[in-house]
Amino acid sequence: MAVIKIQRPKLRFGEKIYLTALCKGFFLTLRHAVKSLMGKSMGAKDLASSGLGVTMQYPEQNWDAQLPAYYRGAPALVTDEQGRERCVACQLCEFICPPKAIKITPGEIPSADPWAKVEKRPAAFAIDMIRCIYCGMCEEVCPEQAIFLRKDYVILGTSRKEMVHDKQKLYAIGGVRTGLVNKWNELK
Question: CA 112 → CA 54, 80, 115, 119, distances in Å?
Fold first, then answer.
């Protein structure tokens, strides 16, 4: 096995103490600071900034108009057009959730119910919004399109108990979603 020795290039004094790189970084930072003070910083107009930098004045100004189409907010459960719950308690979202923020307790549908063919529904469904990392994996894995990520970025609570959203709260904030649901499909 041959050993190849590589000669490192000789550095000049300015290169040894990184003086050039430090000066470039200093002048770049100084240029951005001057632009911010003059109200001409990048993105200031898009965010309706106050003029000093790109900081949005949050309570008075909201992100709603600037949210991109790919924004992932808080998860919520949805119903179909007739108010039936879409979730079949398959627990795929619970299993795929990286921080284990979702807890589902499956329940049986009574045999007298016209939709008894579905076999089960969630008796209890809870999402701990403190643990949720808004990754969107629960939405991707759901076969019935029962869970969606809302465009909501303000999730408030004064205690940990308030930040655990139960089934009723998730359906209230999720609303109605239109479209084919495999659960109610007669051919299934």
Answer: 60, 21, 8, 12
The pLDDT of residue 95 is: 96
Q: What's the token pair of residue 9?
A: 């290039």
Alpha-carbon distance 61 to 167, whole Å? 31
For the chain, the structural domain boundaries read 13-62, 75-184
Express each pLDDT in 140-176 by its tens digit: 999 888 999 988 888 888 999 999 999 999 999 988 8
DSSP string, 53-81: BT---TTTS-SGGG--TT----EEE-B-T
- Arch. (CATH architecture) of 75-184: 2-Layer Sandwich (3.30)
Distance CA 12, CA 28 (A): 23
